[in-house]
Write a structure and sequence with these properties.
The protein has 203 residues and is of the alpha/beta class. The chain has one domain (9-178): Glycogen Phosphorylase B (Rossmann fold, 3-Layer(aba) Sandwich), CATH 3.40.50. It is 46% helix and 12% strand. The chain has helices at residues 29-38, 52-61, 66-70, 80-88, 103-110, 127-135, 145-157, 159-172, 174-177, 181-192; strands spanning 13-16, 42-48, 72-76, 92-94, 115-116, 194-195, 200-201. The protein has a 5-stranded parallel sheet with strand order 3-2-1-4-5. A two-stranded antiparallel sheet has the order 6-7. Helix 1 links the parallel strand 1 and strand 2 (42-48). The longest helix is centred in the C-terminal third of the chain and has 14 residues, at 159-172.
């Protein structure tokens, strides 16, 4: 589907944050604000789910101006096909912080979209970081909030750079989707936890 078919204007640079809204920690608000502040043509998309939207918009209203608030949109949750079309029509995928994504990042890589991430100290904020290290593409791993914003903006303003990064991800992501060692390591770990003589879990 085209942007027009999805109700999105072609004049915008689209940043899609397709995560469950409970992952939108208040510390991430500054990143959202500064992307909209630096990119006057930036539009940030979220997926509408539950009553969290009102609380989040009340939070944004305290730190953002009217123009910035107008460029935040909550999409109605439909079927998975619409979800994928929104990813395809976005310029950049935003990984939340400190609670990041996992499947969302894999889906974005499969659809050849760049994901900006800022790893946290705990495992639920380090999956995208781990994927990038696995494929040897570390360009979109931010060091801090400011770096995160700058990376996101560069992807939309420097099309040649963005294409180079996307091509690199597409070329190397096979090691994420068709790599069998992780499967065998997982099998071996599970087998090591079983007492085969008694067919019970070892605790």
């Amino acid at each position: 589907m085209s942007r027009n078919a999805l109700g999105l204007s072609t004049k915008y640079n689209i940043y899609f944050c397709p995560h469950s809204l409970f992952k939108l920690h208040p510390s991430f608000d500054a990143i959202i604000k500064n992307i909209l502040k630096k990119d006057k043509n930036g539009l940030i998309l979220f997926i509408r789910k539950s009553s969290a939207v009102e609380a989040i918009m009340n939070r944004f209203d305290k730190t953002m101006n009217a123009n910035q608030l107008m460029r935040i949109r909550f999409l109605e949750k439909k079927n998975v096909h619409y979800y994928y079309h929104y990813i395809v029509n976005s310029d950049v995928i935003l990984d939340t912080h400190p609670f990041g994504g996992c499947n969302t990042s894999l889906e974005s890589f499969a659809l050849k979209k760049p994901v900006v991430t800022l790893p946290s100290k705990t495992i639920n904020g380090r999956f995208t970081y781990g994927f990038y290290n696995k494929i040897g593409v570390t360009d979109l791993i931010a060091k801090n909030n400011k770096d995160y914003v700058n990376i996101a903006i560069k992807l939309t303003t420097d099309k040649e750079y963005c294409k180079k990064i996307v091509d690199k991800i597409a070329e190397k992501s096979d090691s994420l989707f068709n790599e069998h060692k992780s499967v065998s390591d997982w099998e071996n770990m599970l087998e090591s936890l079983i007492d085969n003589d008694n067919n019970v879990w070892i605790t």
